[in-house]
Structure formats: C-alpha cells, structure tokens
Design goal:
Blueprint (H helix, E strand, L loop, with lengths): L2 E6 L7 H9 L4 E4 L8 E4 L5 E4 L12 E4 L4 E2 L1 H13 L7 E4 L3 E2 L2 H14 L11 H9 L12 H22 L7 H15 L3 E2 L1 H10 L4 E4 L23 H8 L6 E9 L2 E3 L12 H9 L12 E3 L1 E2 H11 L3 E5 L12 E7 L2 E3 L6 H5 L2 E5 L19 H14 L3 E5 L7 E3 L6
Parallel strand pairs: 1-10, 1-11, 2-5, 2-10, 5-7, 6-8, 7-9, 11-15, 14-16, 15-19
Antiparallel strand pairs: 3-4, 12-13, 16-17, 16-18, 19-20
Helix pairs in contact: 3-4
Cofactor: Mg(2+)
GO molecular function: adenylosuccinate synthase activity; GTP binding; magnesium ion binding
Family: Belongs to the adenylosuccinate synthetase family.
Length: 429
C-alpha cells in the first residue's frame, strides 16, 4: 500500500508543484489534502508551458493520474471552476478530478470577513491572502461549516446558510459596518456551481482505500508548508490547516500505516510571504539578489517574498517533525555568482547558542542567526544532471545541508523546468 507524502520544509513556495509534476506520470493518484486557493503551485512543462495551479492538485498535468481534492481542503467553487475551465481550454483533461463531499466550502461571507478583519487589525495583521481560508476553517471547527455535499441537497444548503448568516451578517453589519450577505442571491449562485461540480463529487476515502488495497501509488500533496502549520508552525502567523505529514492522513482519510515515504522540499535558501518571524531574512543587496534572480513573487498573490539564507534549524525541525525520508533542495542555481553562501546553523537567544527551534514565540522573534560561511561558485549549473556535473563548492554546500538536516538530499533543482534536476537518489524505484 504505497502512499507518499510530499510536504514543504520551510514557509511555502519551495517548488512542491514541480516535484509533484515530476512524479505525476509514475503515480496513480495525486491528492491535495489541505489548504485552499491561498496556495499556488507553478509548473513548467518540458515544452516550456507555464501553469499556475491553486486548488487543482499539481498532478492535473499528469496524463494518467486520478486527481483528488480531499476532505481537508476548503473549496471556493468559483475559483475551482475557473481553474477547470482554464486547464480545459489549454487541452488538459480534467475529467479525472474527484472532490470529497466532506470538503468544506468557502462562502462569500468568509471572504468578506477575511478582508475586513485584516484591515481592522492594521499593523497586527497576519498577512492572509484575503480569500476566506481562515474563516472557512473557523466555521468548520465551530461545526457550522457548509460542505461540498450540501450543494447536492438545496434544502439542507439553505438551512445551513441561513443559520450561518444569522450570525455573520450581524458581525459584518453591526461590527464592521459592511453590507450584509443576501441569502437568496448566494443560494442561486452556489446552486449553479453545484450543477457543474456534481460529476466530480465523490466519496474519496473509500476510493483511496481501494486504490491502496490494489497496490496503486498514491501521492499526497500538501499546500503551504511545515512552518505555516496551525499546530507546529510560527503561530499565529500560520495557515488555518495542517500541511505537515500528519495532516495528510486527516485531510485525505487514509491510515498512517499506508505511508511509506515522506518527501520534503526546501529551497537552497529561504523565503516567506506575509508577516511573522524570519531569523535569516536579508534586507541588503543579497536579499534583493535572491528575490530578483529567484523570481520570488507569490503565484497566487504576486506579493514580494521575503528572502534569506538557508536556515538549517528550520529544515532540521521539519525533517524530524515530518519523518522525512528524502529531501529535495530546489533553486540551487539562484545562488550561482555569490562569493560566499552562508548557512544558518543555530541561533543566539539572550546570549546563549541554541541548535533547535525555540519553544516560545518570544524567543523565536528574538533569535539571531549564527552563520557558517561557504565558498560560492560561478559556473552555470542549469545543465547539470549528475552530481559530478556540479562545481565542487556546490557539492559541498549540498553535502553540508544533508549533514545538518540528518536526512539524505535525493534531488537538487538547478532550474525551473521539469527536467532541470540533479538526481542523487531516485524518489521512486
């Protein structure tokens, strides 16, 4: 029963979509198990076509894999249908999509509340995308969420929406002085979505169980990343779900014993979008260089990403937390041309050196990185396909990351394309 989990080892945007796309032709199912359309995966195909995916699993570009949106995802049906239409127009077969009936819906009041609350918080804002993700998960936990399956029963859908808006409209109107949501207009809009989504809605848990019983390979694709996990990330500057490996079981409905491999993806440096602590963040020319050369702008929002050196404390934490078996290091080519390439090997907090993630939010906010300097390289590495093709200093840099994370680095990305990789150990047999 081979189930493989693919997660991000930093704050997201590590290149998980590229890795999923690489593996897609060799797996039978690709399952998205967390997040919503606040995440974005960019995939570049061998013929140079670029796809920006948000709700659709990256395996959508695989010619054979069944693609699944699991119960742990929050779905904005308008966004999903737009993405389906966009892919179909470009010749991508979307008939293989299946959506869990237990996935929760993002409603108009979720988006409205997300935006107005962020504005209200001012300088204390979290830095959300404003797409309603947090409020949708909040309603899910409060047991007043509306699920995909409710679209199939107009009576139930109306009852649940009326109950939700009884409270949400009071908050929007009386607290934030915003226009209340119209029940009938919302129902009309969403029941139109229901007719188009109906063929895709399925009981995905049993479908995946049957696939695992047959010995099919199931790839579980996380959105966001470890340091944005609700429980294990830099709370409160996190997402509203669990993108770590443990969340894959909950968000897809498969047993932990089915997981045979956990692949983590990390950039050769570090980036983060939104607010929150970031010990290795650079505010100098080096940070600007990483942003420019690495094209560090959000796939979903277009926001500039904050950039910094590789943080081995964060990466090691992610490897231990997720039980990582294989590490993929992407964007090594972005570091080409730098005289020195530092790695953060620990923090100084209150005059003391620490090598692990601090326990408290306060300590992490005040952590000063301790760097280990590594000589850079000037050779173009984008054509490298074996480890021997890499400059000696680049090989030493990767070897040091492997040592610090105590996890083997199996693949090194040397460019954005699907084939632009150095494979040290195959991810699949």
């Amino acid at each position: 029963m081979p189930a493989i989990v693919l997660i991000g080892a930093q704050w997201g945007d590590e290149g998980k979509g590229k890795v999923t796309d690489q593996l897609g032709e060799r797996v039978d199912y690709v399952v998205r198990y967390s997040g919503g359309n606040n995440a974005g995966h960019t995939v570049i195909t061998p013929d140079g076509q670029k796809y920006a995916l948000h709700l659709m699993p990256s395996g959508a570009l695989s010619p054979n894999a069944v693609i699944v949106i699991g119960n742990g995802v929050v779905v904005d049906p308008k966004v999903l249908l737009s993405e389906i239409d966009g892919l179909a127009e470009r010749g991508v077969d979307v008939s293989r999509l299946r959506i869990s009936g237990d996935a929760h819906l993002i409603m108009p009041h979720h988006r409205a509340l997300d935006r107005v609350v962020e504005r209200y918080l001012g300088s204390s804002r979290i830095g959300t995308t404003g797409r309603g993700i947090g409020p949708a998960y909040g309603d899910k936990v409060a047991r007043m969420g509306i699920r995909v399956q409710d679209l199939l029963d107009p009576g139930i859908f109306r009852k649940k929406l009326e109950l939700a808006l009884r409270e949400k409209n009071q908050v929007l109107f009386k607290v934030y002085n915003r226009k209340a949501m119209d029940v009938d207009a919302t129902i009309e809009e969403y029941l139109e979505y229901a007719e188009r989504l109906r063929p895709y809605i399925a009981e995905t848990r049993s479908m995946l169980w049957d696939a695992l019983d047959r010995g099919d390979t199931v790839l579980l694709e996380g959105a966001q990343a470890t340091m944005l996990d609700m429980d294990h990330g830099t709370y409160p500057f996190v997402t509203s779900s669990n993108p770590t490996a443990g969340g894959a079981c909950v968000g897809a409905g498969i047993p932990p014993t089915a997981i045979t491999k956990v692949i983590a993806v990390s950039k050769a440096y570090t980036t983060r979008v939104g607010s929150g602590p970031f010990p290795t963040e650079l505010f100098d020319d080096n940070g600007a260089h990483l942003r420019k050369v690495g094209h560090e702008y959000g796939t979903t929002t277009g926001r500039e990403r904050r950039c910094g050196w590789f943080d081995a404390v964060v990466a090691r934490y992610a490897c231990r937390l997720n039980g990582v078996t294989d590490l993929v290091v992407t964007k090594l080519d972005v570091l080409t041309g730098l005289a020195t390439v530092p790695i953060c090997v620990g923090y100084e907090i209150n005059g003391k050196r620490v090598g692990d993630m601090p326990m408290t939010q306060t300590d992490f906010h005040h952590a000063t990185p301790i760097y280990e300097e590594h000589d850079g390289w000037w050779e173009d590495i984008t054509k490298a396909r074996t480890e021997e093709d890499l400059p000696e200093n680049a090989r030493r840099y990767i070897a040091r990351i492997e040592q610090l994370c105590n996890t083997r680095v199996s693949v090194v990305g040397v460019g954005p394309g699907r084939e632009e990789n150095v494979t040290r150990h195959p991810l699949l047999p």
